[in-house]
Structures are given as C-alpha cells and as structure tokens.
Amino acid sequence: MSIRPLVILPDNRLRLISDPVTRVDARVRAIVEDMFETMYDAPGVGLAAIQVGIPERIITIDVGARDSEADEEEKKRPVALINPEIIGVSEEMSVYQEGCLSIPDYYSDVERPKRVRVRYLDLNGETQEVEADGLFATCVQHEVDHLDGVLFIDHISKLKRDRVMKKFTKLAKEKERDGA
C-alpha cells in the first residue's frame, strides 16, 4: 500500500469521464488499498480514483471516520464501490457542507437528494445494491460526480465557482513558478 499524490484543481484530469472497470482483480484491489490509505492520510471520507490520477470508475468511502464517539478501529467502516451507478434518488433533498480533497480548504453548502440507491461491484466482482442516506448518500453522489468529471463546485453559484477557480489557478501558477 502507498499514499498516492492527489490531483488538485485546476488540473484538467478532474474533468475526465472515468472508464468502467472491466475486471475486478488484484490490480484493482491494490488501487483500492492505495486509495483508502491516501483518503485516511488526507484525511477525507471519500475518494474517486481520478483524484489520484486513475481514470477508472472506482470510489472509496468511509463515513465512520466522522464518528467522534468511536475509537480509531471502530471508526473505520470502509466501502469500495466499483462501477457505481445511482439507480434511484429520493424526491426529498438535504443540504450538507461539502469539501473535496482535490479542492483543499474550500467548503460550501450543496443540496442533493437525501437518499440514493446505488448498484456497484464489490472487491469480489459481485454486484451489490445499497440504499444510502445522510452523509453516506451525499458522499456517494459527490464521488460518482467525480467519475463523470463533475465537481461539487459545479453545484454552487457561478460567482462562487468562478472565485474558487481563480484562486486555485493562481495557486497552481505560483507553485509552478516557484518550481514546486
């Protein structure tokens, strides 16, 4: 396992549409392990493969990491979703303050369906379906968006989105100029 570097805005790879995984094998399981290690190190509660430069339809989520009552091992409730597909959404909406490991230190309220039903392959290549609600539903939608080249800032006002893009473009140019 290894921690992989995160792809940061304004990197154009974040706008790629990820390819389906054709076979769940040792290579895919190794990517998932690296993604969990990277996600926990960041720290975050969700990660899409494209965020570590891999344009494949793989996401990792662990909302248990947000449970402040549990000890470190109890907090871990990891789930890997391969080729996730949202097959149903509730009419009821909810708002969560979202952030993104690829857009560090920026948060904004985003409204999404409160519940979703998602179909995916597990690490054994078996088809699974799960009903997600609360933070888990928000994370699933946020990460599936990544697989389609959509960022959470695409769900906020154009004015706020333009400010974020300007800030991260400036930071990237400064980093490039400084040779980092």
UniProtKB/TrEMBL annotation:
It comes from Ancylobacter tetraedralis. CDD domains: Pep_deformylase. Belongs to the polypeptide deformylase family. Binds 1 Fe(2+) ion. InterPro entries: Peptide_deformylase, Peptide_deformylase_sf. It comes from the Bacteria. It is an enzyme of class 3 (hydrolase). Transmembrane segments: none annotated. This is Peptide deformylase. GO terms for molecular function: metal ion binding; peptide deformylase activity. Keywords: Hydrolase, Iron, Metal-binding, Protein biosynthesis. The active site is at residue 143. Fe cation binds at residues 100, 142, 146.
